[in-house]
UniProtKB/TrEMBL annotation:
Organism in which the protein naturally occurs: Mycetocola tolaasinivorans
Protein name, as recorded: Uncharacterized protein
Length: 232
């Protein structure tokens, strides 16, 4: 540390040789590390086959009485904005990569691999130059572009909040085995392969599957309908 406060106004001491603190440095590094995966994820959300799941039941637009669901342009705009931002700043800080047709963002026909590659290339360059960038006053403008752009503009953080890469907890269609109410919440495994969790949200119930019968109850929620008998 150098006894100087973070130029970002965080009331924290700046890292030695840099103008920003450890917390701000970490935010930038995490954003750059996750950029390619976030862009790829956003582009994948508008693949030709889309469905909405309610309690493991798939509802699509392919049956009588169902119209085609409108395309959500949010992920497309978010991916395009993130790539444009990364490429702009990479080139601003000396990247000699031309980026060709991706210099102004992603085109409609861009594949997932191409989206990942261009975001990864720009983000990796910025990560490699981090110590140089964070030692100049321009790091403040760079952080503004990553985290606090003009209202209505997408950022990596805003995009992953709106379109998370892992499934959010949801209410299951099957009733709670104990109170018979449709109040079972399922917390999916997430990005790190944890076991899914099941819990009744009814305030006087709170049922969860016993660990010794977890696999049996998982069949009830995630597989063919099978209801294990609970001992009284």
């Amino acid at each position: 540390m150098n006894g100087r406060l973070c130029a970002r106004g965080c009331d924290r001491e700046a890292v030695f040789g840099l103008l920003i603190c450890e917390r701000c440095s970490g935010r930038i590094r995490r954003a750059l590390d996750e950029a390619a995966e976030v862009v790829e994820h956003l582009r994948s959300l508008n693949s030709p086959v889309q469905a909405v799941r309610y309690g493991r039941e798939v509802v699509s637009g392919s049956g009588p009485g169902f119209g085609q669901a409108p395309m959500d342009l949010g992920p497309i705009d978010a991916a395009d904005t993130i790539v444009s931002c990364l490429v702009h700043w990479a080139q601003h800080f000396g990247d000699t990569e031309s980026y060709g047709r991706y210099r102004d963002g992603l085109e409609s026909g861009t594949t997932l691999d191409e989206a990942w590659d261009v975001a990864k290339t720009a983000a990796d360059y910025l990560a490699d130059q981090f110590s140089v960038i964070a030692a100049t006053v321009e790091v403040l403008d760079f952080m503004d572009a990553l985290f606090t752009p003009p209202e209505g503009t997408w950022t990596i953080g805003k995009a992953i909040s709106a379109y998370p890469t892992s499934e959010m907890p949801y209410r299951h269609a099957n009733p709670c085995p104990a109170c018979k109410r449709r109040t079972i919440q399922v917390a999916p495994p997430g990005n790190f392969g944890q076991d899914a969790k099941y819990q009744c949200l009814w305030e006087t119930c709170g049922w969860t599957p016993p660990l010794t019968k977890l696999e049996q109850w998982r069949l009830y929620f995630d597989g063919p309908v099978f209801v294990p008998k609970e001992k009284k």
